Amino acid sequence: MNSASFPSFPLPRGLDAGHxxxxxxxxxxxxxxxxxxxxxxxxxGLRAALTMLRDRCGGAVAIVTGRxxxxxxxxxxxxxxxxxxxxxxxIRRHPSAAIERADVPAFPRNWLEAAEHALKTWxxxxxxxKNAGVVLxxxxxxxxxxxxxxxxxxxxxxxxIFELHPAKMAWEIRPAGIDKGxxxxxxxxxxxxxxRRPVFVGDDVTDEDGIRAARALGGAGFRxxxxxxxxxxxxxxxxxxxxxxRWDG
Length: 249
Known about the structure:
Layout: E1 20-24, H1 46-56, E2 61-64, H2 69-75, E3 82-85, E4 90-92, E5 100-101, H3 109-119, E6 126-130, E7 133-137, H4 145-156, E8 162-167, E9 170-175, H5 180-187, E10 197-202, H6 208-216, E11 220-223, H7 231-243
Parallel strand pairs: 1-2, 1-10, 2-3, 10-11
Antiparallel strand pairs: 3-4, 4-5, 6-7, 7-9, 8-9
Helix pairs in contact: 1-7, 5-6
């Protein structure tokens, strides 16, 4: 992205590397959406750009994702100071820290068995298991979307322990009260993030809590495609930003 297009995605006035913290979603933000979670590709130069940004911001770069932390370590090893996985169920505040896990209920076994049985009738639909929930993916079986939603809503009726969240061509079931806003607030409490202004960037409905939390803390929140056309445009902007000597144009 050239300098002429940079002002169309402005940071808050006066924000510089000494006062900013970046909290970034992974799928659809740092990497393009792939047919399945394991098929994503990390673009050339992304690791270097994130590392440069991290160093300029005194370490204040975090990945906030719906994925388990271990998957971020696989795709972006040694890049982020902090990683929040599963929408904040798991948080590692710095690379050598232990992973903190929220006290969440076990996902009901009968729901899991029902999901596995139902997906057999929808070729292409897949079940992604997480430590505290599941994701029902239907990108490769778009006709399954409504049926999978109805099934999940039937499970959740009459209880308040788990919630259903829409995602891109997927339905995610996870414990109530855990979201990316919770993750942003937790990360921003400790160095090197404490006292900085958070900049959160995401692309999905599940990122809106993180955007709201960042703005509430005096920072900024951006969402693809409203603020950036796509993940490639954001990566270009991020690379340009990391290399700039000044961030005010």
